[in-house]
Amino acid sequence: MDDNMSLPSHILHIQGFQLPQTFMYPIFFSLLFVYLALLVSNIGVLVAIITERSLHQPMYILFCNLSVNDLIGNTVLLPRLMADIVSTERFITYSQCVAQAFFSHTFGSASHMILIIMAFDRYVAICYPLRYTSIMTTKTVVTLSVSAWGASLVLVSVLLGLTIRLSRCSSIIQNAYCDNASLFKLSCENVSINNIYGLFFTVLLFTSSMGSIAVTYFRIAVICWTKKSKELNNRALQTCASHLVLYLIMLWSGFLTIILHRFPDYPYLRKLAYILFHVVPANLNPIIYGLQTKSLKQKIIQILSRKVTHS
Predict the structure, then answer these.
(1) How far is residue 157 from each of residues 75, 112, 240, 265, measured CA to CA in Å?
(2) Residue 130's pLDDT is what?
(3) pTM to 2 decimals?
(4) Which residues does 125 contact at the CB level (< 8 Å), separation at least 6?
(5) Which of 123, 92, 119 is nearest to 13 (CA)?
(6) Which of 8, 13, 148, 153 lies 20 to 30 A from 130 at CA?
């Protein structure tokens, strides 16, 4: 489809995935299964933590942050994406597109910031176990969580604010979803400020994220090496390995999305990387963080056994 300027000015056409007819419904139902799985697992973790008073502790507040963020990030992306896969007319209003981009970018930046806090939490738990309860109080974790969400909202608001001010000379979103880069590419104006702030935003987020993770994990490794405690090493490996694997998946899928925006010859790879960035951590977080934590796992099993008994 050529740039359709006969559309009303507030209506955009999403390019989407150009899929053969035979692949439409298998992909639709695969995404539906993935979405339902992450809804059930993340809501399950939230319900277990909220209803069990013994889980009202700092570490579980961080689990709640992750689950809420994963639910927001995927709910804003997947239902719309599934509808577009089976639809021949992929239209969206400009305001809906901006809203999707806003929540999607907030999800990305909040993911990094929450994982930074979780890395610090693990560092304190492993390196200063006797002082953990006095350092990581509920008040401290709530303050850190509010700061993470606040910083994400401010950074993304500026990012999208710079894009909204631009006039538009195109109505085609050259993507399967709305994000900031796709939105400012609708303009024929000079977008240098957008590119500069986008670069600043990305560098700030990734360097603070990678720097914090590197420093905390280096300190944990040093403590484990110097103390030579088998119990400590096992605890560090159990709690940190999963965190690191998920962080690396999120980091590289995020990197790929950003890099591939500069290479228009690989649109499918960019779209796929972005979906993986949303979907993979959201499905693995409840399993790895939730079910590896003994008390939370016991509570989830209790809830499930109660439901089976009542049914």
Answers:
(1) 20, 17, 32, 30
(2) 86
(3) 0.85
(4) 59, 132, 136, 239
(5) 92
(6) 148
Beta-carbon count within 10 A of 235 CB: 16
The pLDDT of residue 217:
86
Give the containing element (helix H, strand E) for 172.
strand 172-173
Bridge partners, residue 12, by sequence:
92
What is the DSSP-derived secondary structure letter of residue 131? Answer: G
CA distance 49 to 265: 45
Q: Which two tokens stand for residue 275?
A: 């979906």
Q: In whole angstroms, how far apart are CA 287 and each of 41, 74, 199, 274, 290?
A: 8, 17, 33, 21, 5
Instruction: Give me the residues paired with residue 13 across strands.
Output: 91, 172
Q: Across residues 32-41, what is the average pLDDT?
A: 91
Alpha carbon 99 to chain centroid distance? 16
Percent of the chain topping pLDDT 70: 87
What would the two tokens of residue 235 be?
């605890």
* Location of structure tokens 């006095």: 134
> Cβ contacts of residue 300 below 8 Å, gap of 6+?
44, 45, 48, 290, 291
C-alpha span between 58 and 142 (Å, rounded): 8
Beta bridge partners of 173: 14
Q: Whole-angstrom Cα distance, residue 150 to residue 212?
A: 19
pLDDT in tens, 239-294: 677 778 778 888 887 777 777 767 767 777 777 877 888 888 888 888 776 656 66
**H or E, element range at 91:** strand 91-93
Query: Which pair of tokens denotes residue 60?
Result: 């579980």
Q: How many residues does the chain have?
A: 311
